[in-house]
Amino acid sequence: MQTWTELKQIQPLAAQMLMNSFMKDRISHAYLFQGNRGTGKREMSILFAKSIFCKNRDGGSPCQNCRDCHRIDSGNHPDLHWIEPDGQSIKKDQILHLQKEFTYTGLESNKKVYIIVDAEKMTVNASNRLLKFLEEPSQQTTAMLLTESGPAILDTIRSRCQLLAFQPLNPVRVEEKLIEEGVSASNAKLLASLTNNLTDALAMNEDEWFANVRKLVIQLIEVLQNKPNEGLLFINHQWMPHFKERTQLQRGLDVLMLWFQDVINHYLDREEHIIFTTEREKLSQASMRWSRQSAARCLSNILEAKRKINQNAHPNLVMEQLTLQLQR
């Protein structure tokens, strides 16, 4: 995402607020970017830094071609400082080092920017040291704190920052972005239904384990339709060996739920909502096996199985019980 126009499509309110900062020449000394992972916080902080340093800016938009823009892309701009967790936390020494850096005159200009990633991971001492830094802001200093957990940030720090809330991504937009990244249309639709985190979706698309999840769900449906007596055999010899962890099993059940949602959408002629677009013939066959009411009951059974998995019930027993329920 290279432009404010692109970021406005994903985070319209946050992008517009930052653009207004430039248009009205009212850049705050500190911002708190709050939102789930994958919602564009890092991308927006980079673009905002470019807009601050770029000497060829058009309104609020950086040129993307000048020396400043290129050095920010490569992580080598001397007046842009990144702080990320050292191990499990951001430590006091990291903030002290940052403060020391900011006592020096800017190498490229009088402006300085620092970005703190996973700001909620600051230790108490680091937070208190940062607070003192924020209490005496320089006119030419801009801070961006990126966090997934705003409440974990000290109230005294939050009160000194302009809060920008990053909303979960729209599934349609996630699907579009995945296709732009080269993901097939059918996989993009499935991935966007499972997560609104673009980073996670791209990672799943590259994961061979996840590619086999879709295949196993289709195979399970075919067994339940055509060879119901072999359902338990399939679960124990093919399904469970693939889903060794509880989190993996939850993901498999999520995909299975999407299948039965598609069966219901097929009954309702809501073709635009169907996820398994390349398996329409199999969906048509499934609608002969499961009525709309029984498909809805299957969804309830899957939700109950997910609940039991969360409560540490034995995974094999849960899946065996679910298989028998899906066969009815």
Automatic annotation (TrEMBL):
SUPFAM superfamilies: P-loop containing nucleoside triphosphate hydrolases. GO terms for molecular function: 3'-5' exonuclease activity; DNA-directed DNA polymerase activity. GO terms for biological process: DNA-templated DNA replication. NCBIfam families: holB, PRK08058.1. It comes from Halobacillus litoralis. Pfam families: DNA_pol3_delta2 (PF13177). This is DNA polymerase III subunit delta. InterPro entries: DNA_pol_HolB, DNA_Rep/Repair_Clamp_Loader, P-loop_NTPase. It comes from the Bacteria.
